[in-house]
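lol ok so funny story. i was supposed to be doing the assay writeup but got distracted and ended up predicting the structure for this chain instead. priorities right. anyway since i did it might as well share w the group, maybe its usefull for someone
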Amino acid sequence: MINRVLIRTKVVQNLYSYMLTRPECTLAKALKDLNTCLDKTYELYHYLMRLPVELTHIQEVRIDEARNKYLPTEEELNPNMKFVNNRLVEALASNEQLQQFAQDHTVTWNDDPIFERLMLDKVIKSDLYNEYMAEEEDSMTADSLLWQQLIKQVILPDENMADAIEQRSLFWTEDDMELVGQFVCKTFRRIAEGEEDVILPMYKDEEDSEFAKELFSATVTMMPESNALIDELLQDSRWDKDRIVLMDRIIMCAAIAELRSFDKIPTAVTLNEYIELAKNFSTPASGKFVNGILNNAVKQLRKQGLVVKP
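and the output, tada:
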């Protein structure tokens, strides 16, 4: 689930924190913090998949209470059970892998009942919910699609969700929610398609699991050389090196370290990824600036024989 796009993002974010807290923060501590950050990202994936199960349970309790109250209405006696019988939610609730992770890491929203009630009310008042309840189609595909749409259009954009996430972990951001939400929806689609082993692993393989640590360490080790190269390139540009923001420097240093240290990653992939990071996490002009400097850096590194890959 944690792919290299996400890893690069977390490496850059943690490098920024590391640079601001040196020398109090050692490299060993920074690497430990990075690992915790990535672990928490995978935990967020499980939290988001747990939410449909717990919201559905609350709605089921509400229906049961309404049915058993004094003088229930006809609608309360014969409620539409389509939402609480959602097949995707049943599959999530019965998945042993999800159950084990939730037990081991105490993944639950039940400790925040106010948030759960607010979120369930938002879901039930949404057009997506009302259209789903009125739709004649009754299938796993429709059940999965409902929760994919609710995650993307109702739950993740909600300010209560942002507050709840922020209170649970300092490592989680709104950007994390959007990206992890995509993986959650991918998992929901896999469940609907009947795939086996639907829960995405934390990393695709061992190589990816080591990528973050190796990239972070390489960036820190090569930072004096990388900064010297950047300053040299700045002399031939219209940019004033004293006005370059710290985040731009970190992004470029990480890109140069990746260019030099990971022969299997094509040059174009590295450039594109870090230019996008500059656009997303730095100033409005950073994308264009980082693009220009990194392209010139590649030419210089090739002349020096430090980058030989395509």
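The longest helix spans residues 27-67. The two ends are 27 Å apart (CA to CA).
back to the writeup now i swear
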